[in-house]
Input
Amino acid sequence: MKKMFVTLLVFGVLFTTNCSSQTTEPEKKSETPQLAGYELVWADEFNYTGLPDPKKWGYDVGGHGWGNQELQYYTNSRKENARVENGKLIIEAKLEKFESSSFTSARLVTKNRGDWTYGRFEIRAKVPYGKGTWPAIWMLPTTWNLGNGSWPDNGEIDIMEHVGYNPNVIHASIHCNKYNHSKGTHKTGTINIPDAVGAFHNYILEWTQDSIKAFVNDKHYFTVVNEKRGWEFWPFFKDFHLILNIAVGGTWGGAQGIDAAVFPQKMEVDYVRIYKKLP
Output
């Protein structure tokens, strides 16, 4: 009996020690699902903690207005503005003095880490709220070699834009030489998502050589067709990269003012998945 008691005691100590030495890890997401007719070519499931993975994400940095009179300074590798926690990417816009700006935020880019011509782009995200917020999920060309070498000649694809003064209305658009907001000719679509500012939704782009289509979840609401009239009408035949950001104010986001009391505000991203259509 004594030997058995000692054995049980030792076993109990070892069991307790092993249990107490374990650390609590965030719950891991299931494996990235495959999609019929497509091959997964790039993804970030955000199954880690800290700064965004530098192998997948870089930063656009600065506070010069970004062509839209925006008020934020986009920072570089600063957890206050861009971090991964609890399985989510957090992009946070804050009311704080930084350099010559009154707000900070982050603008993450996959440039030279993820660049694609055509594909299905699926980003599950929850947008912020409040006047002055202007979150976006969008794409710019990696090489600017058309026309005058600048915007809008080389194109822009907006998968999701949301302006805080018009809550829960989601926009998708394209811009190019012939179709852009500077001329009032840009092609755009909108959809009302009643809980866009309070819940996660899938923002999806399907881009082929013939068309660009936008969806929220399974709802298709925007299409632009390649008219085959030259690059001025369709510069979307070369590599583009993905951009995730929250702008503050600006010609559109700040058109009805900025409610400073709502800051800080976050855009949360559950995952980013890029698929290539199989032949």
About this structure: Residues 1-27 have pLDDT under 50 and may be disordered.
